[in-house]
Amino acid sequence: MTVAFDVLDKISKRVAYDVGHGLQDDVRQEIWVKFLLYPPPNRAYAWRAAKSARNSLWRHEQRWWRLRDEGEGALCAGLGVRVKVLAAANARRVVMPEEERLERLRANHRRWYHLNLDDARANSRERVRRHRARQAVAA
Q: What does the DSSP assignment read for the chain?
C-alpha cells in the first residue's frame, strides 16, 4: 500500500515551508525525487523521507556556500582540492567555549537534560526502580 498523492503533496509542502523562500522549490523537487525513487509505504516513512531530502539538500547548499566563500578557485578545483579547502575552513572555525555552550543549553528548554547527565541517569534509574517495584506488588 502506498500513500495517496494528495497526502504526499501536503507533506512535501509542509517540509519545504520550513526552509527559506529561496530553497522551497528545490526542496520540493528533491522530496519528490525521493518519493519517486522509493515510494513510501506509509505516512511515517513519507515524513522521514521528506525530511531526509530536505536535510541532504541543505547540507549540500551549506557546503557550496562554504566553498564559494573560500574563493573562485575552490569552486572550479578538483575534488581533492575542495576537500583540502573545506578541511582548512573547518580548522579555522572558532570553537565555542564551554561556559557559552552550557549557557545556550540552559536557555534551550528542550535540551535541559544535557546539562547534568549523571543526575539525569540517576533519576531515570530511580524511576525504573519504582516502576518495577509497583509491577512486582501488582503481580
A: ----HHHHHHHHHHHHHTS-TTTHHHHHHHHHHHHHHS--SSHHHHHHHHHHHHHHHHHHHHHHHHHHHH-HHHHHS-HHHHHHHHHHHHHHSPPPPHHHHHHHHHH-GGGGGGS-HHHHHHHHHHHHHHHHHHHHHH-
Amino acid (1-letter code) at residue 20: G
Average pLDDT for residues 98-112, to the nearest whole number?
71
Range in 9-13, 67-71, 115-119 with the lowest mean pLDDT: 67-71
The answer as to whether 81 is a domain residue is: no
Q: What is the pTM of this model?
A: 0.54
Lowest mean pLDDT among 29-33, 37-41, 83-87, 128-132: 83-87
Instruction: Provide the number of structural domains found in the chain.
Output: 1
